[in-house]
Amino acid sequence: MGDWPLADESVGTRDVVSHARTRRAHPDMLRVAFRRCHNFIHGNEGMPKDAAFWQFLYLIFCKMHDERAPRDKRRFWAGPKEQFDLEGRQKIRQRIMPLFAEVKQQYSDIFRGNDEITLSDRALPPFGSEIPITDPNILRQFELAHAWERLDDGSFRNRGRLQGSFAPEVLFIERCLEWLKPGGRMGIVLPNGILGNPTAEYIRWWILQHAWVLASVDLPVEVLASIMASATPFCFCTMQKQLTVERTRLQGLRPLF
Q1: Is the pLDDT of residue 117 over 90?
Q2: d(Cα 17, Cα 65) in Å, to the nearest integer?
C-alpha cells in the first residue's frame, strides 16, 4: 500500500512504495480488516456476498504473492493520490492484473485459467475504512443520498442534488423501510451519531415521515468490541412502518422507550 514519502522527498519525487515492515496481525484485528475490505467490495460493486468474497480472495492471493518479491520489486501498492483520479486508478489495475496472472499459474490447483478480477477501478485497493458509496447510479436510487435543506417550520426539503458520497448504513435504513409492508416492524443496530448528530437531523426527520420509532436503546461498547476496529457507540432501534403518511403528525404522541 502507499504511504508518506521519506524525509527530503515529496509525493512527486518517485513512486511511493511502503517502507513499513510486515508485522504479525492480531487475529481479531485481521478479521475486522478482512470484513471491512469485503464489505467495501460488496457495497461499492453491488455484488452478491459470495461473488465479493471470491474477488477479495483473488486480491488476497495477489498480495501474498507480491510479499514474496524483493521490496523494490513489489507491485501491490497505491500512491497517495492514485486512488483519487482515473489515471491513478488505472495504474493500480495495471500493477495488480499481471500479479493475478502469476497467481493463477502458481496456484493452478485453486484457480482456473478463466478466473478474472472483474472489479471496477474504484473498488481496487486501497480500501476505504468507512466504505462510502460513491457510484451515482446507486445513490440516485435513494432519497437520503441527496442534499437536504432545513425549512423555517423545522421540516426539510430535498434539493434534488446528489451528494458525492454517502454512508451505506444510512442507505440501509431507507431500503429496509422500503421493503417493510405497512405496519411492519424491524430492529436495526445503528451508530449513535445518526440519532444524535446535528448534521444528521434531516435523516431523523425523514425517518419520522415513514415510521414510528418505537424504541432506541444504547448498547455497551463491549457488545460489539470483538468485531469492531474502534469503540464506536451504537444503539439498537426498533421502528414500525407507518400505515399512511398522514399518521406522521401523531408521531410526537407515540411513547418512545
Answers
A1: yes
A2: 16
Question: Domain boundary residue among 89, 123, 157?
Answer: 123
Paired residues of 238 in beta bridges: 187, 215
Q: Say whether pLDDT at 129 is over 70.
A: no
Partners of 186 in beta bridges: 239
Residue 80 lies in a domain: yes
Mind listing the pLDDT tens digit for each residue in 177-203? 999 999 999 999 888 888 888 889 999
- Residue 98 pLDDT > 90: yes
Q: Which helix (H) or strand (E) holds 156?
A: strand 156-162
Its pTM stands at: 0.49
Residue 245's nearest CA partner among 171, 166, 155, 164 is: 155
- Amino acid 105 reads Q
Total residues belonging to the chain: 257
- Whole domain around residue 208: which residue ranges? 136-253
13: in domain? no
> Same domain for 32 and 97?
yes
Q: Give the H or E element holding residue 49.
A: helix 49-67
Contact 16, 5 (CB under 8 A): yes
Biggest CA–CA distance in the chain, Å, is: 67
Any domain includes 21: no
